[in-house]
Amino acid sequence: MAKAWQHPFLNVFRHFKVGEWKRSTKEGDVTPVTDKTLKCTVYRIRGSVSAGNYIQLPQTSTQSLGLTGRYLYVLFRPLPSKHFIIHLDVATEDSQVIRVSFSSLFREFKSTATWLQFPFICEAGTSRKDLAGVAPSGARWTCLQLDLQDILLVYLNRRYGHLKSVRLCASLLVKSLYTSDLCFDPAVTVAEARRAKLPVTPVPREMAFPVPKGDSWHEHYVHIRFPSVGSRASSEPAQKSRSPPEAVFRGRVRELVPPPVAFSNPFPDGVSPAVQMFGPTASRQARPVPRPLPEVSLFCEHSEVASMNGPRDRSQEPSARAEVTDKHTAGNGVHTAVPESAVVPVALEDVAPRQRPGRKQSRPEMTLGETIFEQRVRRHQSFLPDPILKLKGVIGFGGHSTKWALWTKDGAAVVYPCHAVIVVLHVDTREQRFFLGHTDKVSALALDGSGSLLASAQARPPSMLRLWDFQTGGCLSLFRSPVHALCSLSFSSNGVLLCGVGKDPHGRTVVLAWGTEQVGRGGEAVLLAKTHTGVDIQAFKVAFFDETRMASCGQGGIRLWRLRGRELRSCPVDLGEHRVLELTDLAFGQAQDSHTLYVCGRSGHILEIDHRRRAVRRARRLLPTQTPGGHSSQKQPFGTGPGISISSLSVSQTTCAVGSDDGYVRLWPLDFSSVLLEAEHEGPVSWVCVSPDGLRVLSATLSGHLGFLDVPSREYNTLARSHTAPVLALATECSRGQLATVSQDHTVRVWDLATLQQLYDLRSPEETPRAIAFHPTQPVLFCGFASGAVCSFSLENAGVLVRHRRHQGAVTGLAASPDGSFLFSSCSRGTLAQYHCSTTRCRVLRVTANMVCRDAHPTPNALVVSGDSRLLAFVGPSKYVVTIVSTASLEELLRVDVSALELASSRLDSAVAICFGPVPPGHLLVSTSSHTVVVLDAASGRVVRELSGVHSVACPSLALSRDARFLLTATDRVIRVWDYLAKASPGCQVYIGHSEPVRAVAFAPGQRQLLSVADAIFLWDVLGAPGRSPSGSAGDSPGAPPTCEASPGARQPEDTEAGTGGLPRQQVPVPSQASPLQLGARAGPLKGADGAFSTSDEEGPSQESHSPEGLHQASSLPMLVKEASGAGDGARGAPGGPWGFSMRPHPCGWARGVSTTKAQARPSARPDCYRHFTARYKASSLVKSASVPSARVERLLLKAVVGYNGNGRANVVWKPDTGFFAYTCGCLVVVEDLHSGTQRHWLGHPEEISTLALSHDAQILASASGCSSTASCCQIRIWDVPGGSCRHLLSYHDTAVQALAFSPDDALLVTLGDYGDCTLALWSVATCELLSSARLPEPAHGVAFNPRDARELACVGQGAITSWLLQQRGAEVTLQVHREPVPEEVGAGELTSLCYGAAPLLYCGSNTGRVCVWDTRAGRCFLAWEADDGEIGVLLCSGARLVSGSNTRRLRLWAVGAVPELRRKGARARSSSVFMEHELTLDGAIVSAVFHDSMDMGVVGTTAGTLWYVSWAEGTSTRLISGHRSKVNEVVFSPSASHWATCSDDGSVRVWSLASMELLIRFQVLNQSCLCLAWSPPSCGRPEEQQVAAGYSDGTLRVFSVSHIAMELKLRPHRAALTAIAFSADGQTILSGDKDGLVAVSRPRTGMTFHVLSDHRGAPISAIQSTNKECGDLGAEGADLWLAASSDQRISIWASDWPRGHCELLDWLSSPSPTLTEFPSRPPPCLVAFCPWDGALLACAGLGMHPEVVFYSLHQKQARAPPPPPPHAVPGAGGIQGWGGEAHAHCPQVVERIPLPFFAVSLSLSPGAHLMAVGFAERMLRLVDCESGAVQDFAGHDDLVQLCRFAPSARLLFSVAHSEILVWEVSGHRATEESLGSGSWPAWRRS
Q: pLDDT tens, 1516-1533?
């Protein structure tokens, strides 16, 4: 009844008494006049400025019209030669206010979340560029009928609530406004309708326009209905025209679409939704029919463009037509709308000639239209879901300002702007959510005290403000501020007052206050006060204790403000002598009774203001600490002046945090007595904010860094890093999931796509990087610079590998071939360079001039290589030509003149960007300057198809998905996603969000995500399920494996079976016409003595194929398999049921000594999911002669392994009942007793172990490793658990094993190959015979047996689940397979994990974070829910509990006890019955997990190399095994031999207990690599003060106190990375060497570097060692003897007396380097060490031409000439007397030579027995007895042995390969020669 008074219609002007202006308002020139046409009074609104001349209803913005009518009728006439604007504020059902505007000023349609702008087009036939314009002189009265419900639903997916306000702006005449729920026909009067009995609603009498007798209504007036019936589906514009309606109209009739299908509503690109006016026509509209409307994304627009199969005619571009009807078309007046052709765009005359009024449309034309429509419906159904993209993550911070970053009320999340996007980041989980809607950079943020209301302002004038519901993310209000630009916002604590500070157009400061109390209740923000002030305001805040009081500070003053009534008044604070200070920030004290205001300034002052007395209570000044050798001497401050320049401060109840320009955040007590905590940043700190609980301090820097300091733990956490300038290009890496970007800020950054965290930051201050590319197979990054240089960077050591300068101009393009063979670069001078990059150091092959276009558009798509690495395409030699050359020879294969493709065009087309499609069929996409994408045949140059009008301007970046389903184009700030498979008229979806032009778009590895870069980096999720490859694509190529899906031609029944949970079955399983799998069976006993396979190095793999030769299809029977063996040709029928395929084993076995092999297949591309195993890249190879000696002669016993391989998958096993616990580290299986910590080690695998499986009775363990240089197949070892011995060795898979699983009865073992193998093998556990095998059509990620049926197993992969059924008849085993695709409704494109639950349930995890539940009996998915935000890699189920682990580091426990009951409910099942019980966040992605049957406790492994013990009952996680994730660079020991320490590339220094091998302390430095380490000697004066000194990649040296667990000193003695470090013998001096060859001498007590030696300049320092020895017998003074070695094989020996500052050069050792042929990859390191048992002996390796260790004696000399120093170094050129000096004319005498089999990479001498350990790149460790000469070799590492170190006790030896640390026990360290037993005896050479 509340709406009854508005029915049937309401005259708005009359109801609100517009003439009285009490309930409405007018502004400017608004006058009532009498119109001669209508013969009544109308209102004329005119004026030069539309915004200053208007009629507004109601009077104020806080009021509401409350009109609920669906239709709004506006009766108006545009004034000739003028523009007009109509604003409507419409409220949705959820109180969201949307502004809808119509204007002749708008040139294109624009939309945000709260504003729709529609251009009003007044004339037909206008060119597309001039659609908007002034009204013509003959403009007529118009009835504009707006369907408010459809406008909101179609364009914003919102439900209409009511009309809130209307503003009619100049220049127009308006009669009145009407609202109604009825759809009136203004051309029909009541009398006509009654007389003719027309089925329409005639217009009421007072709304009717007078029509002269005998004339038609349309001859005098215009009726516009928006959206029209057709345009509600296609959003086509209505157009004003004086011509009669045409026979064909553009648009789709939405009601014809089946209700379950919700497809997009595209409108023409470049022909945005517009209101267009028609001329005099006799029209009669049909009554609208209710129809289902689609769900449209909030920030997704849609467009549709027609394409042709040949050249197009731009001169006949079809203009859009609205829905119009002709009263003469049919007697009943029913309108028929014929949509546009989906095949070719035709001019209207092509279908029907231009007709005279009254001509009837022909029936064949309407039939044609209906047929075309059916084709378009089918096409648009394939482009689902809508939207297809979802913003997942944003990399970036700031944009307009880096000042604004706020804590939420609970302190769990941080709110900050990233250009035009507002990000809410959860600090613990790193989850992001977004506030989208701003069209420019956000300039200010404010959050109210309750955390429910968020305010934001954007930068570009006029400044727009948005008020958001912080919990839901909805925009509550959008309004324009009265100032030019807002720079500051502040809420009162209760959220009812919002204050802002900005500048007016004249640059004056303006302070504003809005009332926001009614915003959450459907009202608007009310401007309460506005005042101008002449003072400078840098900060402005509302007092938390009184919303009417505020304070501001700025240059030279502090002012206190007060709001009284509607006025803002202020008074200054008397600062006295401090009135000249430049004040930057302020904060109110948190104590209720303190009444203190804290203000900071650039001079370092902090003023405490009593705001009640308006006086300075206390003034303090913070000065930098001037300590000897302190930071001030090592680092230049960012600010100037004697004080610390403070930029921001924040106050809690007990502390005050200040951020300063010197890069420090300091935490002080409120009395500022001493610094409690400080953190140094990379740039000036611009903002600090203390969390509500006072335990965290948020900080932001001008360099785009955002992080927080955790006060209790004293740790700093980085939240976001950002480029500080636009991003120019991007590149993605597949195997490690990395993204590289280059920016105008002179940086190259590498990001982790899984965590969105920065991994590397490569800076180049001198030149700007322009192009970027990853090496496809190696950890190498290529970058091109504006100077013309091309550099390759190693991602392992973050160093420059090689630098080429073959270009004279800026590098414009960079591309690497997918096979990793070649790299190509182009420059602005037209030069093309080719590089050979299959090795680590790429070399130049060819440089050709005038190949590439000189004036090409700057685009990342300048150079592209085809997917098969055969073709290279580029724009050149001119911008009108696209050239394709051979990648191997650069021979020109094809040249296409783009300008000649369009003969009818009046201007020449030029190529802008290019992109290769999938190799078959071999298409090249070219974006042209005419806004077209042309698809060319790469072989012939023929035009295959065209996409016209892709963007309004040229498209500089485009990308095509690997399956050729989606095409990405980017122009300006818009990203478009096209349905590329639609051959005729592809639809597209439009996405916005960037505030600057998009520079590049690309698909992420795996095609599940896409990236766009501009002002920031956006990561989008592709929500669409993976589509089939197009015809002729890779999926249809002869070499591609056949698919396992049903035949496309199979007839689908109309009544499909519906699964529960609303997931209908997509298709009924039917027999296929071809085999879905290449099935091969191999069975037979192994004749070996031990029952294991053996692989001979001399014999090649057998290429005999055992696959069936023929698979035949019966008409209605399951698959029949004809065996390819000689056992007979009879066919066997498979049993009935859903199992469609059968397979029998091959009857023959194998001869002894021959491995089982299979036919080779092309490896698949690595799936884009972390669940799939990828072995770590290794440059080393295993030596064949390395072996573990027998136990009776072992001198080294492997005692412990430190670390866990987080790169493995499911590589942890645990049996709680027996206590058996095992995991992998490298190529070792580690069996550990969890109670005692003792370990057993099972050796034998040559490569990294990928996965483990434990039998159910815990008696058998299976382990698998990849192929190696010595074995062509993977090794699968079967271990006897009680005995710890290897029972069998299996060999079948080619590349790697992805998963292993035992059957429930432990009789069978299934092995699953990785993406390069794609095979599944079934083995007998008892005999280790291969029973069956099958080739999979695509990579699978996991396999599992049904725990209740040993005959059933399942595996998961891309888009489907594959089930296998085993049947055995005697000795024969039959495998039947069935593949069920995942329903699209599930939204899980790729299944990554699986586990069986209660019968008959199977749980599957997906890469989208969803868990779907399958009924294995019915073969259907009936339930799915969102279990995580990332990929789920681990699933475990027992009873009613399910554990899921994902790459978001989250481990979750789910209660699934209700799922069996949900299976029975059918369609009534809902996932709400599944709920999460517990959640834990660990330190890395979850890769392995094993739990007790009760699921209360378990062990979980992460990619960080950590094993955790998880207790759900206690809700805790305890670290069991810890190790380094990155390469370990050094191992050192404490003098007491109680502790040892390691450093790694991950920036951590870890201290361990030597007795228990447990991790005790960890010092972490973010974003740096720790490259060297040294432990202070016992002679440092205070033995209890143990210290470790660490050198980092940024040239800093840090000294950590082990006793106090704190960093004691940080200094930067080097500009380059530190590579070696050592303490002097007395511990008072630190020697450090860097990558440039400089050696610095520093004193840790003073923090000063008092000397730098440059004798080794030019070559990195590889080793520094110091020993305590009196040097008198060597002819020098001092008690310290030390040496330095560099990579150029030069060693210097020095004698020093550090207390006296004396240092003297004793000797030089140098030798020519080995040739490159002897060591092709890189020269061997120069290794040197003092001999522990004779201080005058040196052991050196890598000095000569041969692999050997040479012992030199410093006492015995031989005459020689002094070695020439490097040309850039002068030995002895020291600045202190006594330093340096020429080397003696005699060199040390060689006393021993020990030959080695290979060049050594690590060396260590035992301090006990005369033993020497040598590590090799061949993964071998050698122990040499230097007295007897006996040697032994040991294997156990899976990479080069980069480190070997004897412990001080000589009882332990540590060896390191990458991150694996092996601890060996040296038995008989005083043993004699005979104890080595059968060790080999080298030929020693003595000199």
A: 999 999 888 889 999 999
pLDDT given for residue 125 in this prediction: 39
Note the pLDDT of residue 982: 76
- Could you report the per-residue pLDDT of 1021-1049, keeping only the tens digit for each? 888 755 444 444 433 333 333 333 333 33
Q: Which two tokens stand for residue 1713?
A: 């380097």
What are the structure tokens assigned to 199, written together? 């089925």
In the three-class reduction of DSSP (H, G, I as helix; E, B as strand; rest coil), residue 206 is classed as helix
Measured from the Cβ of residue 1280, the count of other Cβ atoms closer than 10 Å reads 13
Record the tokens describing residue 1382, joined without a space: 């995942």
Are the C-beta atoms of residues 307 and 343 closer than 8 Å to each other? no
Indicate the residue type of 555: Q
**H-helix or E-strand spanning residue 1459:** helix 1459-1465
Strands (E), 1655-1769: 1661-1668, 1680-1686, 1690-1697, 1702-1710, 1727-1731, 1734-1741, 1748-1759
Largest CA distance in the chain: 131
Closest CA to 763 of 777, 748, 778, 774: 748
User: How far is residue 189 CA from its own chain's centroid?
Assistant: 62
Asked if 1855 contacts 1868 with a C-beta cutoff of 8 angstroms, the reply is no
Please give the Cα distance from 1006 to 734 (Å, whole number).
Answer: 8
Strand segments (E) across 622-671: 646-651, 655-660, 664-669
900-903: long-range pairs with CB below 8 Å, 24+: 901/311, 901/928, 901/934, 901/943, 902/311, 902/312, 902/314, 902/930, 903/311
Tell how many helices (H) and how many strands (E) occur in the chain: 8, 137
Instruction: Grade residue 1508 by pLDDT with cuts at 50, 70 and 90.
Output: very high
Report whether the peptide linkage leading into residue 385 is cis, meaning its omega lies within 30 degrees of zero: yes
Q: What is the spatial distance between Cα 494 and Cα 500, in angstroms, rounded to a whole number? A: 16
Question: Highest mean pLDDT: which of 266-270, 334-338, 610-614, 768-772?
Answer: 768-772
- What is the dihedral sign for C-alpha 210, 215, 216, 219? negative
Q: Is the pLDDT of residue 1640 over 90?
A: yes
DSSP 769-799: EEEEEE-SSSSEEEEEETTS-EEEEETTTTE
CA distances from 658 to 686, 688, 1618, 1874 (A): 10, 7, 32, 70
Euclidean distance between CA atoms 114 and 156, whole angstroms: 9
CB 1552 within 8 A of CB 1569: no
Query: What are residue 746's DSSP bridge partners?
Result: none
Token pair of 1746 as six digits: 């041969």
> Comparing 1127 with 859, which gets the higher pLDDT?
859
Residue 1084 has pLDDT above 90, yes or no: no
CA distance 1292 to 1092: 12
Q: 166 and 87 in contact (C-beta within 8 Å)?
A: yes
Is the backbone peptide bond immediately before 387 cis, with ω within 30 degrees of 0?
yes
Cβ atoms of 1395 and 1356 closer than 8 Å: no
Tell whether the model's pLDDT for residue 767 goes beyond 80: yes
**Which among 1009, 917, 932, 1012 has a CA at the least distance from the CA of 967?**
917
Judged on CB neighbours under 10 Å (0-12, 13-18, 19+), 1590 is buried
pLDDT (average), residues 1872-1880: 39
Does residue 1511 carry a pLDDT above 90?
Answer: yes
User: What's residue 1263's pLDDT?
Assistant: 95
Dihedral sign of CA atoms 808, 810, 813, 816 in order? positive
Rounded Cα distance, 658 and 709, in Å: 12
Q: Hey, is 1194 helix, strand or coil?
A: coil
**What is the distance between the alpha carbons of residues 1319 and 1292, in angstroms, rounded to a whole number?**
9
For residue 592 the two structure tokens come to 């209720």
Q: How many residues does the chain have?
A: 1887
- The model carries a pTM of 0.49
Going edge to edge, which strands form the sheet with 567-572?
Answer: 539-542, 549-554, 557-564, 567-572
Q: Per residue in 912-932, pLDDT tens?
A: 899 998 877 788 999 888 888
